[in-house]
Design a protein that fits this description.
Blueprint (H helix, E strand, L loop, with lengths): L1 H44 L3 H12 L4 H4 L7 H10 L1
Helix pairs in contact: 1-2
Length: 86
């Protein structure tokens, strides 16, 4: 009886951990999509076809190695990461 209760408790704790991780990942994905949409909107607001094309190409370009591991400053991803560390 005790073993079955401990097993159920362990499974519930594991399920809670998985759900919590999924929620955080979903929040980050939603924020990344919103940030990308804002950047695209700013690119499309530029005057001149060359400026728009250059701006959109920069969005699609792979980040440099030095910046690849770091999120841009002042983004929602940084805020969520800081909240998660508390």
């Amino acid at each position: 009886m005790t073993l079955s209760l401990l097993t159920i408790l362990a499974l519930l704790m594991g399920f809670h951990s998985v759900v919590q991780s999924s929620v955080k990942q979903g929040e980050l994905l939603r924020m990344n999509v919103a940030t990308r949409a804002q950047a695209e909107w700013r690119c499309h607001a530029l005057q001149g076809d060359r400026q728009r094309a250059h701006c959109l190409n920069q969005l699609d370009a792979a980040p440099s190695e030095a910046v690849a591991d770091l999120p841009p400053d002042n983004t929602a991803a940084v805020q969520v990461a800081q909240i998660a560390q508390r």
